[in-house]
Amino acid sequence: MTAMSPDEWQALSLSLRVATLSVIVSLPFALGLAWLLSRRRFPGRLLLEALMFLPLTLPPVVTGYALLVLFGRHGWIGEWLAEIGIVFAFRWTGAVLAAAVMGFPLLVLSIRVAFDNLDRRLERAAETLGASPWRRFVTIVLPLSMRGIIAGSVLAFARAFGEFGATITFVSSIPGETRTLPIAIYELMSLSGDDGGVQRLTLVALAVAFAATIGAAILGGSLWGRRRDD
């Protein structure tokens, strides 16, 4: 098997950048939503959870079309953003947004499990000592949930790295701009018939996905198997 071509390296580099940035952008929102779902009971909570999981249950192409309607140049939100110079459609930033949306449910779910499994007595003890909610969150909840947060980040990274349907619908395939590794594999299979390139990139994708799932299992396995002690 020959070495990867410059175009293949470019697709791999873009996928790694997109996946990494998607997790970084998603993490603050995932922390807030996971805490809300774990610690609060409110009207519409089930609806919020259902909406959160939609990217996992909808066909990715539908998610990509929804992003195009919302964030396209003439979309509900995208038209307003374009006026201040922020454009997502057919840009690498749009690939980040699509990847973030697809990986977000996995990230929230893992963090929420970590929050649910915390010993709430530690928080109550800190509250009796006068610690504010923000201080309890920063000094108790976050440190003790770090394994779950990292595990969720790894899973979200793997999902973002392999994202195809929503990405190609929202940002198309532009070499050097939006042509990620999965899109490159698809084009090599359907357009050029380059079996060698398909095999090389498939092996790379398998290696990244396997490493991510093993890492998530090591970090989160014992956590996901525990029961919360209230």
What features would you describe in this structure?
This protein is mainly α and 230 residues long. Helices cover 77% and strands 0% of the residues. The chain has eleven helices and no strands. Helix 1 packs across helix 10 (181-192). The longest helix has 34 residues, at 6-39. It is globular and about 65 Å long. The termini are far apart.
Number of helices: 11
Q: Note the run of SSEs as H and E.
A: HHHHHHHHHHH
How far is the first residue's CA from the last residue's CA?
A: 56 Å
What's the Cα radius of gyration? 20 Å
Summarize this structure briefly.
This protein has helices at residues 6-39, 45-57, 60-71, 78-83, 92-116, 120-128, 133-144, 146-161, 165-171, 181-192, 195-224. It is mainly α and 230 residues long.
